[in-house]
Structures are given as C-alpha cells and as structure tokens.
Amino acid sequence: MEQFKSGFVTIIGRPNVGKSTLMNHLIGQKIAITSNKAQTTRNRIQTVYTGEGGQIVFLDTPGINRAKNKLGEYMLNVAENTLKEVDVILWLVEPTTFIGAGEHYILEKLQKVHTPVILVINKTDTVEEEEIFKAIHTYKEVYDFKEIVPVSALRDKNTEELIKVIFSYLEEGPQYYDADTITDQPERAIVAEMIREKALRCLDKEVPHGIAVVIDRMKDRDGGRIVDIDATIICERDSHKGIIIGKQGAMLKKIGTQARIDMEKLLDTKVNLKLWVKVKKDWRDSEFLLKNYGYQKDNEW
Q1: In the structure, what pLDDT confidence band is assigned to residue 35 with cuts at 50, 70 and 90?
Q2: Where in the chain does DSSP place strands (E)?
Q3: What is the residue range of 235's domain?
Q4: For the whole prediction, is pTM greater than 0.70?
C-alpha cells in the first residue's frame, strides 16, 4: 500500500500575483477572496487538499510587502512567521524577467529560512512560451529553487503537476482533517470576506484599503431554508461612507447582491442579507479595533 503523505504548504508572493486564485483552484472551491487590489488577503487562510496519496494543508498568507500601518505590520508578521513553520514554500511570481523591489524583499526573507522553496510562475496564459523560459532563467540566477513549475491558476493549467511536485517534498504523515474538509475558516469569516471582496471589486481605489466587515448576526430560519445575515461594513471616513452607500443606496445594493450570490452557493440555501455602513476613524492603526475585527496576533501558530 502506498504511503500517505501530509504537510503544510504556504503560498507567498507580491500582492495581486494570483495566490488566492491558485489556492481556490487547487482545492476546487472558492474560499479565499480575489481582486486586483492590494491587501485582498489579510488573515492566514487555511485550506485543505485531500487526494489518494495524501493531504496538503495550504496557508494563503497576505502579500509580503513593507508595512505602512499597524494593519500592514500585522499582515507582514503573519506572512513572515509562516515561512519558518511549514514543510514547503510556494513562491508565486509573474512570467517576467524584471525582478522588482517587492521580489527582492521576498528574496531577502527566503535567504533566512531552510524550508524547500518551489518557484511557481503564474499567468503563463498571458505570454508566449519563450517569455516563460526567459523568466525561469532569470529566477534561477537569484535563488537555488528546489523546483520551478509554470502554471496558469486562472485557466487551471498545470496545477495537477504542481500538486505532484508538492507531494514529492512531503514526508509520510497523518491525515490532519477529514477528507471532506476544505477549510478551517468558520462560515461567518468566509461570509464576511465575500462581502469585502465585492466591495474591493466595486469601489474606488482609495476606499477598499480602509474597510473591514463584521457579521453582526447569522441565523437559520424556516428550518434552514433561509439564512438571515446582518453585516456592517466599517470604513475610515465619512466621505468613504457616502461612496460605499452610493446614490440612493445603489452601491451598497450592488455589493450586497453580488455577495449574496456567492453566499448562497457556499451555504447551499437562500440568504437574506442586510448591510450597514459605519465610520471608525483610523481603525487600521488601532490595536483594539484590529483585534475586534479579527486581525489577532494570537491567531498565529
């Protein structure tokens, strides 16, 4: 009988390189939110892939870049602490020969760890094959990677090969989660993130960084056929509140409608969603409010 392998794998990379999209495809369900704006992922989201040969617990961390406020510091600590505690690191990059300041910052961090690093060149569907080979050559010059695997997370291309490569660096181990478990995140946390994702996608650039979402109530009704969800979007300025609500409530309605569609897929039931907006000035620099909104250093293991 083939041995059962298991281990913990973190996915790192600059913001917007496709980490959450890749993880969602690898486990086959949307758990981590995606958008083209920085700071999409704030907490370390744990998801689980279980196959015949073993189990991989993925940790999708916030993008690694220099911190600008207490929220930024929290996110950076989460990402950097994870590097030392996992069995394999996947570093996601784009198929380019330009290695910018963000990548050099990550390289600095990787020099300090002894964990095997697999370079994953994402978005291969956006360039010619020759450009992928050039990118591989460029990155080989700057770090001794265990493997380099080109993929397209969006098109789900070569992701099965990536799973095989990851398993080749894992040792025999226990099954940490039941075979049907795909995340350790409570439903309330996923639902809150779905609202934040829609806000990120719908709003102006300066607003999304300054929002958090709190689920005030989540309760089954009518024998579980409907779930009532009350949620509050927290923002930093009165002007932002106006933008989030929109003319005659149009923007808030748009965010709510899009979020409800994802929630109904996740919960497999009808959802009655009510949204409010509150202003909490400079919450991203308040230890108390950060903790209140779920960004806790105690969450690290």
Answers
A1: very low
A2: 5-12, 45-50, 54-60, 88-93, 117-121, 147-150, 212-221, 226-235, 270-279
A3: 187-299
A4: no
